[in-house]
Amino acid sequence: MQRNVTEAETEPNEAPGKALRAGWTTGACATAAAKAAWAALCGGGFPDPVEITLPRGQHPAFALAESGLAEGTAMAAVVKDAGDDPDVTHGALVRAWVRRGAPGSGVTFAAGPGVGTVTLPGLPLPPGEPAINPVPRQMIRDALAEISGAVPDAEVTIGIDDGEALARRTMNPRLGILGGLSVLGTTGIVVPYSCSAWIHSIHRGVDVARGMGLAHLAGATGDASERAVARLYGLRDQALIDMGDFVGGMLKYLRAHPVPRVTVAGGIAKITKLAQGRLDLHSRRGTVDMPALAALARDLGGDDTLAARIASSNTTPEAFAHAAATGLSLGDAVAARAQAVAAAVVEGSGIAVDVVIFDREGRLIGQAPSPRNLRR
Predict the structure, then answer these.
(1) How far apart are CA 355 and CA 347, in angstroms?
(2) What pLDDT shows up at residue 18?
(3) Residue 115: count of CB within 10 angstroms of its CB
(4) Which of 140, 152, 150, 160 is nearest to 90 (CA)?
(5) Which of 5, 6, 237, 271 could pair with 200 in a Cys bridge, judged by C-beta atoms 3.0 to 4.6 Å apart?
């Protein structure tokens, strides 16, 4: 899941056949490394394996890949195991360097090599802070306190080998997290192929855009539609939300965190599903209702022959091509129905919603502006 910015954390999905193996977040690995390093700095040696306590009370143990103690600083490293999830950080070496801090400082955090720095507003951490999220920070504080009996004064630096290169395969650059990866996790556990990672990245994208004061956002179902909608409206990167199939997840978050205008952009099949009332556009949630699409074509003036061809089409682009061959454009009609479905989700929020449909080459083939007729 190279497009995701977080590890997946939710309840396990049911899957046929072999059960998928869960893994550990970067936050859990960083906590284990920091605890082992602090134990050594306190004179107890490097525990290997090192056991930590997760937010829900589990007690996993992690083997150390590397460790060392020199000049008042202890370092320990743990290999990130994401289980069977296709996480870009799977196999990465997560390091922690720990040294004693100034009296009264508590635990302070710094970004080492491969961990990014926050540069834009809207994230859980202010600009200038290392991208070590609040829950992993608390996990590390608690882990060090287990050894010291209270939260100690300690400087903790977290690094991830090759993190800067790996981060280019995530949403971090768009979110303004520069120089490396984020140290993430709310439960400490990675559940394979869950949807929460993508939903989390959608939420953070909206937060950053709002923090920057952007008035017009666009959620796209894929790369082609994202490039096309950016060209159409001249939108900057931070205004583009990689919503994938989760148009409902994006719109529901926007309802609670509104912006003046949002455009839903996608390909023919995805937006046709939205027009037919689906808010999760993944193929596992169902296919396009071809007879319903044929009925729409008939409502627009198509004859029975066209309706029959559309109803028996193997793909939605094929159905649209049949309509186009008769001079009938389904694009605007489908976009209008999709706009009504999307607008209903954010009703009462003050958001103006419009919908655009692009073909595989990025050509605009359907458009439905908000009834409020807002202009960018």
Answers:
(1) 15
(2) 55
(3) 28
(4) 160
(5) 6
Question: Can you list the pairs that 145-153 forms with residues at least 24 positions away whose Cβ atoms lie under 8 Å?
Answer: 146/35, 146/53, 147/35, 147/38, 147/39, 147/42, 147/44, 148/38, 148/42, 151/106, 151/107, 152/38, 152/100, 152/101, 152/106, 152/107, 153/100, 153/101, 153/102, 153/103, 153/104, 153/105, 153/106, 153/107
Look at the block and give the residue holding tokens 């309802």. 255
3-state DSSP helix/strand/coil percent for the chain, to nearest 5? 35, 20, 45
Report residue 73 as tokens.
């600083």
Confidence at 314, pLDDT banded by 50, 70, 90: confident
Nearest in space to 182 (alpha carbons), one of 126, 136, 233: 136
Give the integer Cα–Cα distance in Å for 271 and 334: 7
In angstroms, the CA 345 to CA 177 distance is 30
Q: How many residues does the chain have?
A: 376
- Which neighbouring-strand residues pair with 216? 261
Q: Please count the CA atoms within 13 angstroms of the CA of 342 that sit on its side-chain side.
A: 37
Q: Which amino acid is at 96?
A: A
d(CA 49, CA 114): 24
Confidence of residue 4 (pLDDT cuts 50, 70, 90): very low
Side by side, the strands of the sheet bearing 352-358 are: 240-242, 216-220, 261-266, 352-358, 364-368
∠ CA(121), CA(126), CA(132), 5° rounding? Answer: 120
The amino acid occupying position 240 is: L
List strand residue ranges (DSSP E) for 149-200, in order.
154-160, 177-178, 180-181, 189-190
Q: Is residue 68 classed as helix, strand or coil in its secondary structure?
A: strand
103: nearest Cα among 167, 140, 151: 151
Cα gap 336→152, rounded to integer Å: 59
Q: What pLDDT score does 285 carry? A: 66
For residue 16, pLDDT beyond 80: no
Instruction: Please name every residue paired with 242 in a beta bridge, in sequence order, or none if there are none.
Output: 220
Token pair for residue 218? Answer: 């666009």
CA distance 17 to 322: 40
